From TrEMBL:
Residues 994-1026, 1072-1102 are annotated as: Disordered. Residues 34-414 form the Rapamycin-insensitive companion of mTOR N-terminal domain. Signal peptide: none annotated. InterPro entries: ARM-like, ARM-type_fold, Pianissimo_fam, Pianissimo_N, Rictor_IV, RICTOR_M, RICTOR_phospho, RICTOR_V. One of its GO terms (biological process) is positive regulation of phosphatidylinositol 3-kinase/protein kinase B signal transduction. Belongs to the RICTOR family. One of its GO terms (molecular function) is protein serine/threonine kinase activator activity. This is RPTOR independent companion of MTOR complex 2. Residues 1078-1090 have a biased composition (Polar residues). It comes from Poecilia latipinna (sailfin molly). Residues 498-717 form the Rapamycin-insensitive companion of mTOR middle domain.
């Protein structure tokens, strides 16, 4: 009922009328009471919360409103709850509400009939208001009701269950004591096993881990009982979720929930890892132990958990190892690579490696510690058991996981922690022994062979899927010397004999002269003819050759609709396009004899482009088959022409560039502009760059964003002189009115600044970045890493101002920035570009994301001696060291101050200049002590990351080694990492104790640890001049092997038949510093082969890593996986 409210009256009179009507037990209808309660809220919002305006005390108002909660009508009760929520504004009012025992009436409203959803919703909103005002006053009566709903609500099909559990989680963060004492933590963990949504599981598990983080709240969590109960569906084969649930019922569902929760537990950094990896009977050991129990359902679920924990894609269920391996190949086609979606920009972000070579990737640190914990607990042996005792489908999955983890260990673990892993004595014994059942032996042998195949695939590296990306890479300046990947196979198929008779015979055998069915022509032979040495129309005037060209020309012309009409997924699509590009190059090589044919083809393509891309939507290229037919590959032909000066002249003559410029301002041409931007060659100054600039500024938001992303492709592909023109285009994009575009440009500029030439170019451009917030500031700090940039900013007083700001606030902001990036990488949280708050927008975690260390002011200053002197003058290091030595861990503000100091010291220690400052202050032992003993677990995690940053230099590694901490000792720039001298010496005695049941041939020593990256998996003998920079303490020369370098990786040796010959060496024996004679007592018994003896020489032999052979890629474009820097730190055993 609508009850009028006269706001012109005295507020006290209105309140008196409202409260009288609400408190009357008779004579006032429920609908009128509802109207008065609504008026109460209007009046309260109008006059504010000053008690003197009410004409009544708060107690009197609460007593009257309390009567509404006892009304028989649910609508009136709901309005009463709403009125109370508006009334409670501070702790004083809340205390009065609780003193009058209103909390019992609130509990009654929560526990009342489930059908009263409006009333219960208002009750829950009031409960959240109480938590917001003062959670420490939260009444236990309401907590009991919430926990009861959260625990048993699902059985009653209560729709308020998730809301109740969410409020319990919120309350646990603000007042963990009341939740713990009422059994709320068990409710949270029980809900984990009930919920299959990873986003909700994350919130639940994170709540518990947050309590575990700090010693003040850790007392409320019984780790051995409560946290590990989420493992029960795995570890308890008689598991019952509820007392009335049959044994084993709905177990699959529970296991899926546990998978989500376990992944979250291990992905929330230090808290989860430390608690589930503690010494003794830990949760991780319980999990790995399950792999040895022949329960296929549990094994399958656990393998999925392991894939998710290590951020690896899960293979399809298939008995065929090749198909399963192909399904997880990062270079396989993905839906986001379609022309209508992310296209080549999305593909290149996966295929081409990040430009950062020495910048710490925090995800490597995280994965290294998780991997080390799992391997120490026996994961590899557990996987071997699954491989040899499961059905083929599970065995295939386990084999791929085993290969991935060995590969990962080789890449991100320090040498001392990974050199022995490839031995896999259990698997090799099974494969070679005749004392075990034949079926198991055959499975082990198959696994060894499959691991070899896995290694071979890793060795080949990532290759582009699309012809577009391959075109960009081949045309980039750094790949000009590489052989054409398309034509190499075709040239190898037919032996080329440079005789006219052979050429004519091949023309005849190609069927192109006498066969009208185009697709039945011998296209391999056609490709061979087009690549024939010294054969073109200029040198060969034969009529048959001209007829050959005319037939091909007719096939490829758009007007004939022969090639253009074929579907994109046609079985010969890729081959026909490759031959078409070769045909265009053939015509260009033919000079004036081919110009007529070439001009005919180009004019036809430009005419097709202009006629199809009309202003009307129905005449757009998209509706004319561009998205589905090979017509889109005409842009590859045009791109091939644009890479040659005479080709550019031809395109300009035929009006292509003018046509594309006109399309920039036409709507509905996104696909056409994407294709043009992707295929044109920008290595020379000219119209191609003009078109790119036009698309970057004048087209639709979608096209501008794509063109901006394409600049990252060009950057990573190493296009010539990118610093002189690409950086200017990126700086222009910083001012795009669409924030998504400007932030993308900012991110690309951050990556581009990994190269000094780009930083110099950026300084010349003097970009304005103040409108981009903190991330823009971080880009400007990049200037400080080179003397020119330091002088530029210092002259303007910028450096001193920034030092003050960082000491006051930015050091703390830096902590938020890093933890925000880690949270986004390790969970399903996604932060929108233009917002300030997290939103959960994805049920899927990112596959192997990178979290490169953000730029820090101190980290940039220590690149130069001048910056170090500035830090010394400001007493920065002593002040930070004091914070580390005297941390205030009682409050979260104190914890954050400590983290800020740690990150600042880590960045200072990232250079040799800065490391000297840390050593002078002797603060590194204090950081190590915090890493091992700090009661706040998240601080331990921060210390681990910081130590990784300190180990960025060789000097940093040496300092940490003195305290018993190991680090990966190479940077991403090191193509062939050499095993450090001290590691050779250290491992000599260590390896002599390794069981030698079956051992590796000396040609595949474990010191060949690929600690640089997956891109260098094999043996390589380094040139003398290249070794000088690596070690000047001794003669850097190498004695070359007398035979060709082969693939001598552990996987190859394990799969080799030589492995079962009697010529075995001591397990994992390393090549010594100097080749010793057989009488040398220090040499290993039986560790020499006749070949080795022939190589006897006083000169030093070093084991380094062989470079991968990439077919058509620039020098730094295609490592097999992304390289890492020496930021992985692991505590040495026994220290």
């Amino acid at each position: 009922e609508n009850v009028p409210l006269d706001l012109s009256r005295e507020p006290s009179e209105n309140f008196r009328e409202i409260l009288q009507n609400v408190a009357k037990s008779h004579g006032v209808s429920n609908m009128r009471k509802l109207g008065h309660l609504n008026n109460f809220i209007k009046l309260l919002c109008n006059i504010g919360h000053r008690e003197e305006n009410f004409g009544f005390t708060y107690e009197e108002i609460i007593v009257c409103l309390r009567l509404a909660l006892l009304n028989e009508a649910k609508e009136v009760r709901a309005a009463g709850l709403r009125a109370l929520r508006y009334l409670i504004r501070d702790t004083n009012v809340l205390q009065k509400v609780l003193r009058l025992q209103v909390d019992y009436l609130i509990s009654r409203c929560i526990d009342i009939q489930q059908s009263n959803e409006g009333e219960r919703t208002q009750a829950l909103r009031l409960v959240r208001k109480i938590i917001t005002v003062n959670a420490m006053l939260f009444p236990t009566s309401v907590a009991n009701s919430l926990i009861a709903v959260g625990t048993d609500g699902l059985q009653e099909r209560d729709r308020m269950v998730r809301a109740a559990v969410a409020i319990i989680c919120e309350l646990a963060l603000k007042n963990p004591e009341v939740v713990a004492k009422r059994g709320g933590l068990s409710t949270i963990l029980k809900s984990v096993i009930d919920c299959q949504l990873s986003r909700i599981n994350e919130a639940l598990i994170t709540t518990v881990l947050h309590l575990l983080n700090h010693p003040c709240t850790r007392q409320y969590v019984r780790v051995d009982v409560e946290l590990e109960q989420i493992l029960a569906p795995f570890t308890d084969f008689h598991y019952r979720h509820n007392a009335d649930t049959a044994e084993g019922q709905l177990k699959n569902k529970r296991i899926n929930c546990v998978i989500q929760s376990l992944v979250t537990t291990y992905n929330i950094e230090a808290e989860g890892i430390i608690n589930l990896c503690k010494a003794g009977n830990s949760g991780i050991q319980s999990l790995i132990g399950l792999l040895c129990i022949p329960n296929m359902e549990v094994r399958k679920g656990l393998l999925e958990v392991l894939y998710e924990i290590f951020r690896l894609p899960v293979p399809i269920i298939n008995e065929d190892f090749t198909e399963a391996l192909q399904s997880v190949d990062p270079a396989r086609f993905q839906d986001t690579w379609r022309l209508s979606d992310g296209f080549v920009a999305a593909e290149a972000k996966v295929i081409l490696p990040h430009r950062a070579r020495s910048r710490a990737d925090l995800m490597d640190n995280y994965l290294a510690f998780v991997l080390s914990a799992f391997i120490t607990s026996g994961l590899l042996e557990g996987l071997v058991e699954v491989v040899t005792s499961s059905d083929d489908q599970l065995a295939t999955r386990a084999t791929i996981l085993l290969g991935e983890l060995l590969h990962m260990a080789n890449t991100i673990l320090p040498h001392s922690h990974s050199h022995h892993l490839h031995c896999l004595p259990t698997l090799i014994n099974m494969a070679a022994s005749f004392d075990i059942p034949q079926e198991k032996r055959l499975r082990a042998s198959a696994a060894v062979n499959n691991l070899k195949r896995f290694h071979e695939k890793k060795k080949k590296g990532l290759k582009p899927y699309s012809l577009y990306l391959d075109h960009i890479i081949r045309k980039s300046v750094s790949s000009h010397s590489r052989r054409d990947s398309h034509s190499r196979v075709q040239r190898d198929i037919y032996v080329i004999k440079d005789t006219e008779e052979t050429l004519l015979m091949n023309l005849r055998d190609s069927h192109i002269l006498n066969h009208k069915q185009n697709l039945e022509w011998n296209w391999l032979l056609i490709a061979t003819i087009l690549k024939w040495p010294n054969v073109n129309l200029r040198n060969n005037k034969d009529e048959q050759m001209h007829r050959f060209v005319r037939r091909l020309l007719y096939f490829y012309k758009p007007t004939s609709k022969l090639y253009a009409g074929l579907a994109l997924d046609h079985v010969k699509a890729r081959q026909l396009t490759v031959v078409g590009c070769q045909f265009v190059e053939f015509l260009m090589d033919s000079d004036e004899d081919g110009q007529g044919y070439l001009e005919d083809l180009v004019r036809d393509m430009v005419s097709w482009l202009c006629s199809c891309s009309g202003l009307k939507p129905e005449r757009s290229l998209q509706s004319n088959g561009l998205l589905t037919t090979l017509s889109q590959h005409y842009f590859l032909f045009l791109g091939t022409l644009s890479a040659h000066p005479q080709g550019v002249k031809m395109l300009e003559k035929c009006g292509l560039f003018q046509c594309l410029l006109n399309l920039c301002s036409v709507k509905n041409q996104d696909a056409v502009l994407k294709l043009a931007v992707t295929t044109l060659d920008y290595s020379r100054d000219g119209l191609a760059r003009v078109i790119l600039s036009k698309v970057l500024t004048a087209s639709t938001d979608t096209c501008r964003l794509y063109a901006t992303k394409h600049l990252r492709v060009l950057l990573r592909a190493g296009v010539e002189f990118f610093s002189s023109w690409g950086m200017e285009l990126l700086v222009t994009q910083l001012h795009d009115h669409n924030k998504v575009v400007s932030m993308e440009a900012l991110d690309i500029l951050d990556e581009a600044c990994e190269d000094k030439a780009n930083i110099h170019a950026l300084i010349q451009l003097k970009p304005a970045v103040s409108h981009l917030g903190d991330k823009g500031l971080l880009l400007l700090l990049r200037f400080l890493s080179i003397p020119k940039g330091f002088s530029y900013l210092n002259e303007r007083g910028y450096v001193s101002k920034q030092l003050d700001k960082w000491q006051k606030e930015y050091n703390l902001k830096y902590v938020d920035l890093i933890e925000e990036q880690l949270n986004e990488a390790l969970t399903t949280y996604r932060k929108p570009v233009d917002g300030d708050n997290y939103v959960r927008r994805s049920n899927q975690r990112l596959q192997r994301p990178n979290v490169y260390l953000p730029v820090h002011l101190y980290g940039q200053l220590v690149h130069d001696k001048t910056g170090c002197h500035l830090l010394e003058a400001q007493n920065v290091v002593p002040d930070l060291s004091y914070t580390v030595r005297s941390p205030m861990l009682d409050t979260w503000e104190g914890v954050k101050q400590l983290k800020a100091a740690l990150w600042a010291l880590g960045n200072i220690g990232s250079s040799n200049w800065g490391l000297n400052l840390l050593q002078e202050e002797n603060v590194i032992p204090d950081i190590l002590a915090l890493a091992q003993h700090c009661e706040v677990l998240s601080v331990r995690g921060t210390c681990i990351y910081v130590l990784g940053v300190i180990s960025k230099t060789k000097q940093g590694c040496e300092v940490l080694k003195q305290y018993g901490w190991d680090a990966v000792r190479h940077s991403r720039r090191t193509l062939w990492p050499v095993t450090p001298d001290e590691v050779d010496t250290q491992l000599t005695s260590e390896l002599s104790s390794v069981p030698s049941t079956l051992s590796l041939n000396s040609e595949s020593t474990s010191s060949r640890h690929n600690s640089e990256s997956e891109s260098q998996p094999n043996m390589y003998i380094l040139d003398d001049d290249k070794c000088d920079g690596l070690d000047s303490s001794d003669d850097p020369s190498f004695y070359p092997h007398s035979k060709a370098v082969k693939d001598r990786s552990p996987f190859t040796i394990l799969g080799s038949t030589r492995f079962v010959r009697p010529r075995f060496l001591n397990s994992l024996s390393l090549p010594s510093k100097k080749l010793r004679s057989t009488s040398d007592p220090k040499s290993f018994s039986g560790s020499r082969t006749p070949t080795d003896l022939k190589m006897e020489s006083p000169r030093r032999n070093r084991t380094v890593t062989e470079p991968s052979v990439y077919t058509n890629l620039p020098k730094n474009c295609f490592p097999q996986h992304r390289n890492i820097h020496c930021q992985i730190i692991i505590k040495t055993k026994g220290q």
